[in-house]
Amino acid sequence: MYTISRFSQLCKMSARMLRHYDKEELLKPVHVDTTNGYRYYEKSQLETALLIKKLKEYRFSLPEIRTILQSSDSTLFIGMIHAKINEISNEMNRYKQIIAEMQEMIEKKVDLIGGERRTYDILLGMRNEISVVSQRLQMNIADMDRYIDSFYDKVEESNIQLLGVPSAIFFDEEFTPDDCDIELMIPIIQRNDEKISREWQIKKLPQKIIATTLHIGSYDYIGYAHMALEEWTESKGYCLDGPPYETYLKGSECDCQVKEYVTQISFPVIKKAMQ
Predict the structure, then answer these.
(1) For residue 210, which of 69, 75, 125, 142 sits 20 to 30 Å off, Cα-Cα?
(2) Is the whole-model pTM more than 0.85?
(3) CATH number of the domain residue 59 falls in
């Protein structure tokens, strides 16, 4: 058997990391001396240690590595490899997009510190009563496209005829990207033969006065559109008459660049009472 210091030399891992893997039940020593707490490893564990290093290099998390080590199902392992390839590919594409944006900023000599001043045209109109299918979820904001796609598929399977693009209401007082309280809504043609599901509800949005604007480009800057609507609402003597919502007219599903995304932001409003 090897002491933890010798085994760390063989597998090129620190003793501190080996102790952590012991705690995480990834690589436990074959023997721990009860008198002094010394850990000992055997030759066969070198292969496991090297596999852990390789899986970490492949960007697997410790819980994922534990699942792989504890399973003898090769199909499961191959499936996890494919999923990780897709995850890394998506991340690479995002980095390529970031690099392209940075290069464009340099070429256009954009004020990197001051940013780009945006202006928004505000329109006021009447939203007629409309039926929607809605689902309220706690989600990671990064998974929103996936949730919307799944929502579309399930709703269509339930014999519900969709009438438009999705909208979202954000209910969180503070933005927490990995745990957002969001209601997804899609306009529908309501009939009497829809299949009812516990996952969503069908409701009517009442007729209301709506102040709207369009945001073109990345969702990262959509706050400017909300601010423009807030300023307009206050200056025109209106106040909110319900939660604001975003409608995604053109997004990732269009296979276009982020700068071509089109989002409509809507504020239900009502005239303030005269003092």
Answers:
(1) 142
(2) no
(3) 1.10.1660.10
